[in-house]
Design goal:
387 residues; single chain; 14 helices; 2 domains; globular; 81% helix; mainly alpha; Growth Hormone, Chain: A
Length: 387
Amino acid sequence: MMMRRVRTSLAYLSAERFVMNTAYRFVYPFLPVIARGLGVPLEQAALLISARHIAGLATPAVTRAVGQRPRRLIATGLMLFIVGSTVTVLINAYVGALLGFALIGIAKPVFDVSSQAYISARVAYSNRARYLSVFEFTWAGALLIGAPATGWLISRTSWSTPFVVFAVLTGISLLLLARFVDADPQLGVPTGVTTPITSSGRAFLIVAGFFALASEMIIVVFGAWMENSFGLSLVALGGVAFLIGASELAGEGATFAFTDRLGKRRAVLVGLGISAVGFALLVPAQNTMGIGLAVLGLALFGFEFTIVSSIPLASELMPESRARYLAWMVVSMSLARGVGAAIGPILFDSFGLAGPAVAAVAADLIAAAVLISSVREHTGHATTKAP
């Protein structure tokens, strides 16, 4: 009965996360449409995405202020997302969109880490990767299904209509929250009180930062590589985006199938190895489109397997403060992605694809070295029971 309740909660949380992930991922291919709708240049519209990423750095502050009760944090994330989507639509100007995107940028990681904490508290560590990987399937699904559906909606209405849909669907989720997510007693330390991050926890934040840095240096330049080397059109680049989604889906599926059996720490190490090999092979394969795309798919598969396997591992590094620790993991990866997005193009302009590819291999190897030397896996069990 208890696990049936957990699966019902997981289905509810995954459905809402699909909505939030779609709101995140559709913006990239449709940013020119949004820019025209707001009457601003593309470069200015891109600052909306920057504002979203920067706002996400506030996630630890929100989790500390709200406390360690996952349902309360989930509700906070839902409300922030509704307000952010509504402001984006109602204030049909650039400033309104900027504020709305910033609120969404806080809402999504707050919802993510609180949902992950909720699931982790109810599933034994030995089976946790399978449950959390189901939650992560919505990331690839948003690119493969959500983004095209949103594009269809925009083509028949306007750029702002999807935000209305997102707000309505999330409003329904908020109304149903108490039915699908149990109220929690205070987990760990009281609101406003913090406990120090363990040495393994600090080390794993470094690991997460370096593997996020590795992938971002490649993701940020792959479009330029495809366009410069093979002259691909925007339509063809959309096909490459499908490859990314398929690689992510395969990585999430591999986590579901293998991570609990391998052990979470070992699975992260395997993922780092696969992605490092993929990034390394990009150097000799960069001038052959078919092989290059296959190798890129391998590297992204390895990265997705790494990141999804890392979540259950991280969930037990500080079980008394799961949401807060997972929030710091969001910060570590966001900062690393910001650095990767800045230096990836510089390396690409100076050395071609070999520049960011070699740097990505180095970043993955550093992550693996820190993981092996400084991160100890805690094989605990769920800390609370569902009623």
